[in-house]
Amino acid sequence: MRSWSWFLSRVMRLFLRWFRLCPRRGRRKRPSRIRDLWNYGTLLLKSLHYNVLTNSDTVLDCVFEPIYWLVDNMTRWFGVVFVSLVILLTSSVVIIVYLCVLPIIFSTYPVHWILWHLCYGHWNLLMLVYHYYKATTTCPGSPPQEKSEIPTVTICKKCIVPKPARTHHCSICNRCILKMDHHCPWLNNCVGHFNHRYFFSFCLFMTMACIYCSISAKDMFLDAYNAIESSYQTPPPPAFTHQERMVHKSLVYLWVLTSSVAVALGALTLWHAVLITRGETSVERHINRKERKRLRLKGKVFRNPYHHGKMNNWKIFLGVEKQSDWLTRVLLPSGHLPHGDGLTWDGPSHRINTMAI
Question: Which residue numbers are catalytic?
Answer without folding.
Answer: 184
